[in-house]
Amino acid sequence: MNDLTMQSQPVDAPVVIKSPSSAATAVPTTPVNSILVPPTVPLRAEAKNLSFWYGEFQALKDINLPIAKDRVTALIGASGCGKSTLLRCFNRMHDLYRGTRYGGQINLLPEQSNLVDLKSDPILIRLRIGMVFQKPNPFPKSIYENVAAALKVRGITNRSILDERVESALRQAALWDEVKDRLHLSAYGLSGGQQQRLCIARTLAPNPEIILFDEPTSALDPIATAKIEDLFNSLRNQYTIVIVTHNMQQAARISDYTAFMHLGQMVEFGPTDDFFLKPRHAMTGDYITGRFG
Predict the structure, then answer these.
(1) CA-CA distances (angstroms) from residue 142 to 32, 187, 198, 276?
(2) Helix 159-172, helix 143-153: angle, nearest 10
(3) Are 149 and 137 in contact (CB under 8 A)?
(4) Which residues have a Cβ under 8 Å from the Cβ of 211 and sit 6 or more positions away?
(5) Rounded alpha-carbon distances, angstroms, from residue 243 to 26, 91, 188
(6) Per-residue pLDDT tens over the stretch 169-216
(7) Sign, CA torsion 4/7/8/11
(8) Angle of helix 143-153 versus helix 192-204 axis, rounded to 10
(9) Rounded to two decimals, what is the model's pTM?
(10) Across the strands, what pairs with 50?
């Protein structure tokens, strides 16, 4: 985080005021502004006026969010604010359910391809954008076959290449030394924390362009959580990562940028150090100090 210099912008800089929803007025604070302090590093993706509906219910409302290349961006907010919904837009997970629709764009940069354009193939998108879920979900296969699965989907069948990529991914996930002598045993024999690191290795193996993490430590004990957080520190500057977390301390520890959402709207985004020390929006300050949420 220290290598990032916040772009100069006075605290009282004019912002576009959006009308808050009736639900938002229940919180004693100023209206949602969508205050963005752009990253000073290249972007890998960018949401522009992104909206999303579950049937008639609008879960996301004109979201604008830059995703810095090879950095960690954390999404925080109270339960039901839309952060997991936003995360799953990036790899079109919502397409698996009926009655959902997108508005606006998520552009993958620098090629400017719109990920939520219905002409884009969601299968190809998911090969480029990996995801790790809240609870470990290893396949009912061996440790080796779990990590090799995405590689085989991509058509890699050469055993020496598979062996090399599997070992590399397990090393990146800090799991190799623990499993190298039982690669061909069931992944279900691993502990919960090991299974989650296996899922991370499985995601890393095909060298994704963006990795999405949806509360990856919420089901783990403190020791396993610390190991996953150590992984973020080793993976930062190598991968573009977006993580949803309810744990503000975790966001402060592992992310370079933080975005705060409320009732489907983007309230504030900026470099993590400044975000927690000098929030620009009253609602952000209220949330991180525990006044609501």
Answers:
(1) 48, 5, 11, 42
(2) 120
(3) no
(4) 129, 130, 131, 132, 203, 204, 235, 239, 240, 241, 242
(5) 28, 13, 25
(6) 999 999 999 999 999 999 999 999 999 999 999 999 999 999 999 999
(7) negative
(8) 20
(9) 0.87
(10) 63
